[in-house]
Amino acid sequence: MGRDYLPHADADMLSWMQAFANGIAARPSAYGLDNGDAELIQGVVGAFAQAYAVATRPGTRTMVTVNQKDTARNAAEQLCRRYYSRIKVHDGVSDAEKIAIGVRPLNTSRSRIKCPPSSPLLDILSATPGMHTLVYHDTNTPESKAKPFGATHLQLFVVIGDEPVMRRRARLPGKTGRVPAPGRREMGGVSTTSGRSQRELPGAELPGAGTLPGAGVLVGHFSTNPIVVKFGSRHDRKKATYFGRWVSRCGGVGPWSLPVSMSIAA
User: Fold this and answer.
1) Alpha helices in the chain (DSSP H)
2) Domain range holding 138?
3) pTM
């Protein structure tokens, strides 16, 4: 059930609950329920209706009666939501019957949003002692700060060595791979900051996504610019080469970006 689907105002919520309860009470078996379920729903909705009447009447409206109304509403709402979710996914209840009691039927026509086929365009804005500042765009819209449709964040890798890495060692597949559920780990002296916290994955090789050259490590997942990457002293005067790719909400990944390299200043 959508978080904001049910009414918010007390009067509207009560009206919806009464229609929900009365519809189930009239034909409980049509909703996969029995008379006991119907009576339970009507009981909590009735208690809310009674408390609401007392709390909204000028002569009886006090802090105590308003609190009692809120308590009754919470109890009724929790129970109705539980039955709502049960009825919503019940294959034996028709869409028409669901709609009749205010239950939104399942939407079976939705399709998964694929990861965009374009790649990120990485740029190193500055290199200060032990720190790089990067920004990203999309190759199709290099003047825009927006991520392409379907991408929720950028997945950024770095390869640190004595020389910059100008090409990927392994051939990358034409179609996207999948990103496993993110975990957290220390990156051996590499730390990052950005507008939002990032999650990290161990290693630099992912199923179906190709292999990065050398000892490539995942810097993190980022959804805002700029990205600040900090290095430990053991990386002084080495070369950092960055690769990135878009990741979708469902874990799909797009093609790799071209590499960008910069020396790590001491």
Assistant:
1) 10-26, 35-56, 63-88, 95-100
2) 120-263
3) 0.50
